[in-house]
Protein backbone atom coordinates (compact mmCIF):
# COMPACT_ATOMS: atom_id res chain seq x y z
CA UNK A 1 0.00 0.00 0.00
CA UNK A 2 1.02 3.63 -0.29
CA UNK A 3 1.15 3.85 3.52
CA UNK A 4 3.65 0.94 3.66
CA UNK A 5 5.67 2.54 0.87
CA UNK A 6 6.06 5.74 2.87
CA UNK A 7 7.04 3.79 5.99
CA UNK A 8 9.75 2.01 4.02
CA UNK A 9 11.62 5.31 3.73
CA UNK A 10 11.49 6.18 7.45
CA UNK A 11 14.93 6.53 9.05
CA UNK A 12 15.52 4.31 12.12
CA UNK A 13 15.89 7.30 14.47
CA UNK A 14 12.57 8.83 13.40
CA UNK A 15 9.56 9.09 15.71
CA UNK A 16 6.17 9.27 14.04
CA UNK A 17 3.61 11.43 15.83
CA UNK A 18 -0.03 10.44 15.57
CA UNK A 19 -2.72 13.02 16.32
CA UNK A 20 -6.07 11.56 17.30
CA UNK A 21 -9.59 12.84 17.90
CA UNK A 22 -11.77 11.15 20.56
CA UNK A 23 -13.89 9.33 17.96
CA UNK A 24 -10.82 7.73 16.34
CA UNK A 25 -9.05 5.93 19.19
CA UNK A 26 -9.71 2.47 17.70
CA UNK A 27 -8.09 3.49 14.40
CA UNK A 28 -5.25 5.19 16.27
CA UNK A 29 -4.52 1.96 18.16
CA UNK A 30 -4.47 -0.07 14.93
CA UNK A 31 -1.99 2.29 13.27
CA UNK A 32 0.15 2.52 16.43
CA UNK A 33 0.28 -1.27 16.78
CA UNK A 34 1.34 -1.67 13.14
CA UNK A 35 4.08 0.94 13.56
CA UNK A 36 5.31 -0.82 16.72
CA UNK A 37 5.27 -4.15 14.86
CA UNK A 38 7.49 -2.57 12.21
CA UNK A 39 9.84 -1.23 14.91
CA UNK A 40 8.96 2.42 14.29
CA UNK A 41 8.73 4.55 17.46
CA UNK A 42 5.47 6.45 17.81
CA UNK A 43 4.16 9.26 19.97
CA UNK A 44 0.47 10.00 20.45
CA UNK A 45 -1.20 13.38 20.78
CA UNK A 46 -4.87 13.23 21.66
CA UNK A 47 -6.87 16.24 20.51
CA UNK A 48 -10.22 17.58 21.65
CA UNK A 49 -12.98 17.33 19.06
CA UNK A 50 -12.70 20.10 16.49
CA UNK A 51 -9.17 21.19 17.44
CA UNK A 52 -7.01 21.71 14.37
CA UNK A 53 -4.10 19.35 13.73
CA UNK A 54 -0.88 21.26 13.29
CA UNK A 55 2.81 21.21 13.82
CA UNK A 56 5.80 23.37 13.13
CA UNK A 57 9.56 23.36 13.47
CA UNK A 58 9.09 25.89 16.28
CA UNK A 59 6.70 23.65 18.24
CA UNK A 60 7.30 20.95 20.82
CA UNK A 61 9.10 17.73 19.93
CA UNK A 62 7.49 14.33 20.32
CA UNK A 63 9.16 11.91 22.70
CA UNK A 64 8.71 8.15 22.76
CA UNK A 65 8.09 6.58 26.14
Explain how this protein is built.
The chain is of the alpha+beta class and 65 residues long. The protein has a domain at 14-49. Helix content is 29%, strand content 15%. The protein has helices at 2-7, 25-37, and strands at 16-20, 42-46. It starts with a helix and ends in a 19-residue tail after the last strand.
Q: What is the overall number of helices? A: 2
Oligomeric state of the chains? single chain
Unreliable residue runs:
none
Tell me, what's the shape?
globular
Number of DSSP strands?
2
* Main pleated-sheet profile: 2 strands, parallel
Distance between the termini: 28 Å
Q: Structural class of the helices, strands and pairings?
A: alpha+beta
Gyration radius, to the nearest Å?
Answer: 12 Å
Mean pLDDT: 85
Strand order of the largest sheet: 1-2
Give the helices and strands, then pairings.
Blueprint: H1 2-7, E1 16-20, H2 25-37, E2 42-46
Parallel strand pairs: 1-2
Keywords for this entry:
29% helix, 65 residues, alpha+beta
Task: Tell me briefly what this model is.
With 65 residues, this protein is of the alpha+beta class. The protein is 29% helix and 15% strand.
